[in-house]
User: Fold these one by one.
Assistant:
Number 1:
Amino acid sequence: MPTARTLLDKIWDDHVVCSPAGELPLLYIDRHLVHEVTSPQAFEGLRLAGRKVRRPEATFATPDHNVPTSDRRLPIADPISKQQIDTLRANCREFGVRLFDLDDADQGIVHVIGPELGITQPGMTIVCGDSHTATHGALGSLAFGIGTSEVEHVLATQTLRQAKPKSLELRVEGRLPAGVTAKDIVLYLIGKLSTEGGVGHVIEYTGECIRSLGMEQRMTVCNMSIEAGARAGMIAPDAITFDYLRGRDLAPKGAAFDAAVARWEKLPSDPGAAYDRVETFKAADVVPQVTWGTNPAQVTGVDATVPDPGRFADPNDRSSAERALDYMGLAGGTRIVDIPLDRVFIGSCTNSRIEDLRAAAGVVRGYRVAPTVRAMVVPGSGRVKRQAEAEGLDRVFREAGFDWREAGCSMCLGMNPDTLAPQERCASTSNRNFEGRQGKGGRTHLVSPAMAAAAAVTGHFVDVRDWQYK
Amino acid sequence: MQSFTTHTGVVAALNRANVDTDQIIPKQFLKRIERTGFGQFLFCDWRFLADGGLNPEFELNQPAAAGASVLLARRNFGCGSSREHAPWALADYGFRAVIAPTFADIFFNNCFQNGMVPIRLDEADVEELFKRAAAAAAAEAQYRLTVDLKACTVSDDAGFSRSFTVDPFRRQCLLEGLDDIALSLRHTDEVAAWEAAHGLPAVSG
């Protein structure tokens, strides 16, 4: 074992249960998060094999993907969505798993409620049948998405078969320029790395810019690690992390918390620890970002133009860009600020936390949504919603003409009634602009909450660095 | 789990990079609570026209790809969501192997759980396979490849043969069709010892 170890090395070494000859190592899993879409077949597998959940107390479930974000008192109209949510409820009851159900005040997007309730803690291994599980790495945990067969494996054994991923340090130096947010940093990094630049790696985000981010902004950065192809993303825990966790429902309390902090303080990478790869960027180079294509690496600055596909040297990149522009209904050379919008969506596991809503409300305050735009805000959890209402943010949004919704994944993936119509164009604070992601034929531009809010007011993209705040 | 030793089948050439799991199986079909029946929805938005008819332009609908069981694709296949519904749909449609220069990690792992082999070949080799598939299609023929997991080779009957690498444990599980949960449960004592060493209460039963 090398003397100088990375954050990934330390968590990995601590969780290898055994490495039997000729087999992949078994990694112990501290926390398993479960939602309605990727779990029913896993529970069914357990039932058919007569197996139990090994540690129900380390397993937490909530419905989020399918749930309507309109009035919770109404029945769920889609019978198949209802069946999946009912199935989750029955499985949690049968296997003794704690469920934050639709009528629970703490229900919400699984990657919002994990940190919010203190389920997520530094140094833990955390998995979920969802690719945005890397979000939890913002607290200094190793957190990654898994498939349903692996969900079943973790339920039955509390372990996962895993080869150790490589480490990739993404260092962002300098302070974040005014008007630029965590979302812009991560979109910029994905643009530089490509959608497969991180494959096989766990990213550790480091540098002054990352250290200066608040806890929820760090979650936004780690959340999108998968969009660069990375297995996970993580940020070393520090005083910001510990302050965030202090007093959370399921975090340690009193002397146990102090003892935990003493352990967590040992987690950051040692000086001189070697990463398999290191890439360095300057925060000063980042401007507010807008995606123009159909993957998150097809992104540019708000002050730029939609690229001409002919300018890509790589034939794969060129044909991807041609296909993307055709789908998006855009021509190369169009200024980003000249792109008009039909819809604005503020929400998702990337950007639905209280700091995101404060940033968006700050832009919107005193303005009206453009008459050509339908805009909605979907808080990430019941807690975020109540906090926002206590601060009066819901009134700011409503008075401007936004819909104010109940917690859920909503229009990030359109598995619920919130979807785009064909060819509708949306400024979205979510994480994926894939073809059809928000609804068949829908056209998605990924942006930060502040950029989305400004676009809702003006009806097209604008550079939020020039915004006149009221 | 279904085992895999060797398989010869028709190649479907999907000439696209970054094919994401939202395309492989659009989200409106993720609401089933079974593992089966997803093949009918595979590549739904590309495969079908708005009126529900087959899109004749789409690669899988070409005569050359009829009955295909080996999928050939470009870089970063299976990126995006962790949904195992993507390999379920591919396997249910009839695919036993996917060949591409690179794959997304979660999709790659998910394939092994479903009797399907993901094979990474060099970009130049993939390019050569696309050429051979196109030549066969131009001659109104089908192009076939043999995947031999014992020998770890991909070959055709016209001189193309390349070896590929695969994790030895995953390979063994596929060759024998092993239940990997049962294999892991053999290490329950070590798991319990780890838990005890980390101060977790004992798990009963």
Number 2:
Amino acid sequence: MTAILSETSVSASPGNARVVFNCLKRDKLAFAAAIFLLILTIATLAGPPLIGDTAAKLGLRQRNLPPFSFDHGWLFFLGADTLGRPILARLIVGAQNTLGIALAAVVFSMLTGGVLGLIAGYSERWYSQVIQRVADIIMSFPSLLLALIVLYTLGPSISNLIIVLALTRIPIYLRTTRAEVLELRERMFVSAAKSMGAKPLRIVVRHIAPMVLPTLLTIAAIDFATVILAESSLSFLGLGIQPPEFTWGAMVANGRGYLANAWWISFWPGLAILLTTLSLNLLSSWARTMADPQQRWRLQSLRKASR
Amino acid sequence: MLSFIGRRASHSIISVMGLLALVFFLTRLTGDPSSLFLPLDSTAEARAAFAKLHGFDQPVYWQFLQYLRDLLSLDFGESVRQNRSAMAVALEAFPQTLKLAVVAMLLSTALALVVGSLAASRPGSLFDRVVTLVSLSGASAPDFWVAIVGILIFAVSFELLPTSGTGSYLHWILPIFVLMLRPFGLLVQVVRGAMLGALASPYIKTARAKGLRRQQIIFGHALRNSLLPVITVAGDLTSGLINGAVIVETVFGWPGIGKLMIDAIIQRDFAVVQSTILVTATAIFILNICIDLLYAVLDPRIRY
Amino acid sequence: MKTRHSIAVIAMALMASTSGIAHGQEASKEIKIVLPEQPANLEPCGTIITNVGQILSQNVTEALTVIDAKTGLPQPKLATEWARIDDMTWRIKLRPGVKFQDGTGMDAKAVAFSIKRMTGGALTCNNMAKFGDRTLEATPVDDLTLDIKSDRPEPILPTLLSVVMVISPNTPADKPVNDPVGTGPFKLTSFDTQTVTMNRFDGYWGEKPEIEKATYVWRSESSIRAAMVETGEADLTPSIAIQDATNPETDFSYLNSETTAMRVDMSKPPLNDLRIRKALNLAIDWEGLKALFGPDVKRASQMVVPGINGHDDSLQPWEYDPAKAVELVAEAKAAGVPVDTEIVLIGRNGIYPNGGEAMEAMAAMWQTAGLNVKLTMLDVADWIRYLQKPYPEERGATLLQMMHDNNKGDSAFTIPIFYRSTGQYSTVSDPAFDAEIDTALAASGEERTKDFKAIFTKARTDVVSDIPMFHMIGYTRVGKRLDWKPDITTNSEIPLAHIHMRD
């Protein structure tokens, strides 16, 4: 996730990181989003070792403990779930699976979709057609249904979950990449490279792929949100991640039956999903503005205006 | 133009056939329907008899050939659970989802165009920020969660709306609202982005210089030019709407095709899975062709 | 201007609609029941499926006998009396003057037709599962008498007959139907993707029910079903989750004939060691676990609920004794039992409310006791492979989450399946135990009861092939208009004739 962030920022401004940071600071929403994601990343990496087993430890006597009390220790500040486990601890531990699955799925689908898109866009051989038809097929396959079928076949393990989530997102990257390649390959620099005798592979890898990457990364940021939500929907249908493993999405799904009398069980993980995906969306839209020379002045003029 | 439609249609037919084959074999991999359809304590003989009755004892490729043969005579198979034609089951449910999807998409596109344009006209203003925050929050919340909270608040606490089901148009409000959240949230961003681009372009500056009114510039000129990306995204969101429909239909007891297809795969009612996919995929392909045609109408530079 | 106008329209519409809801509520004698699941079909041969039975049984279709929930004994319904005329044959006398909803008279021929349709094998019949591999042959003697012959001595045939729905002879014999015609007090009027409706049948042979019309709808979320009854959109929902049963005035609990348990695979080490199996029972904090299922569930010591012939009231369940459990594991370890072997705990998604949480909790408790238990949650289709023979070859030591529902009055629907070496779910293989079971099954009267009790005692104390958990409780929410309380049969039927309106 941090990788995506820094990559987008870099691509937005190849030159000065300081300028980027200043622009980010001027856009308060994007700045808040960046800080939230930073804290989240630190908590995800450093939190679980600190918390240890507490997140999995049963407390049947303190089931559905209400939030906002320090009586049972700070980990219980957000309340306890249906088995009396501290929600705060579970949020921190669950972040690893949630973000890990989403990141793996997004990276996997971006790479696969990107590569296939490059091939489909640059080559005019028969397999270009095949790739496109297969993408059409996956696009017209309702992704929840596809996910259910694959999970029924392979079994609902974490790696299969990643495969399924990635599979349903591949066509997005594929189609975007292909569209960009179709446009790019008519451009001057490609023709120039071609006339200088560069091999197709070299042209694609050295000249075209770097131009497509920023677009893919922006989509990836939004997709990250989509994947977290899709994983949550799978949990709602009973085929998401299986206990004892858990994600935020599974926590929301399992707590939904208690919304009327113990709202906190599904509220906090829901909020965590919302804040994370919101932050990613905000940052990605900020990065788009930064990357667009026509729009960039807005972020810079904001600075002038506020002075 | 006609040749374009013909080419697209032939591509679509190839894709639908591929999809059907894929669905057929994938579903067969998910396990034996007899273990789910028959009660747990039935005998092995009863299971064998069931498999024979529905042809599940045949090799899969043979079942597929028979399925293809039946397709030629427009026989889409029997629903094992519902004792009637699987296609009839799918076609009965489809309009219910279509109604939801059309209303939700039209509303969210229209709203997004207005709200997104207004936000883009004053970038960085309070209104712009609130719009961004609210629309993205809507798109970032798990939909089943919003749906249940919505019912608890509006139907149970305030008793303003019915909890679920169909009937009066009040029954539409919550499902449409939940279904709109994600398309609306994303579309607002797309409209806003496209409008910002359009407003910064030279011809708008010209229009401004000519002294045209703000409203005229935004809704008359810039909007028209930013419609293309909006339509692309709206089209993709419509294809993806079936996922949202699954959740909405499950929570609100709306008898649509999304819930039907999920129930069918959970219960391994293969013929129904195949029929629902056939219906939704066809709808999506038709939608895509329509979108391409719409492009041509909106942008005279595009010729097929 | 325009906005104000539309707000006014919405407000008016809202008022109109709320008054509309109130109106629907007062229209008396009509009730709406909300079920958890859509019935896939309404084939009368599938009434043992909960969502079919809750609609059809006792309302549209009736059987020859009906099981008394308290004694577990068959009572007359369409049959008035029965007698065993030889080892294989029962003679049944039918109730005179009964008509099907299509006007046809109910006679011995119609009953023979119903039995033949069910057992003939021309259509898939779920209810046949209760008969196992028995074959029945019905021969009319006269208009209102028939003989039913079985292929082996059948001491509890009248009990079995409670799952044979008697339907009109005009029903297709080789095709499943969605519009069953029976002898019940209600006639099915419509079945579509949103509702099932039925109206009172005026030609009913028995007492006229108070309800005139019933509509069935379905919603999968428990909280929404509960909300529908609370807001008056529906009058009754047969099952809500315990956390939704918050209003003592409308929410009633009932013992629902379901018993939850874990099955221990006795063939695999370390589970083939009796000490380990005992330790598994002792290591669970039963009182704490109970919190997941509600204060009203009953701790189980055997696989059938009280009221079933063979249930032993005096049999005590295992207590929570973690120290003893640890001690037994250590003892087994010292004796060379591979206690560190991974034991896979196989749970099933959605098997009963809070079932997943229960598995997480039990796995954690067994780990505390020093056993290497790993939890896997499976979907039904995969789970069944472990439930039924032949078990997967590659399986290791497994504990399987299961739930057994015996609402048919007799332990014969339980014991052979679980404890006989040939039993479909059994991991026991003990010829002496088999012989005991066979003797019990052939016995009748008090002898039968006594034998069943002895078998349950042995299973609990000496064999320990399962870990009985709880006799489960269901919760219903009943709207204030209705006077009705659930009982042990509610999971299989909701007789509208028993529902009265409050005035």
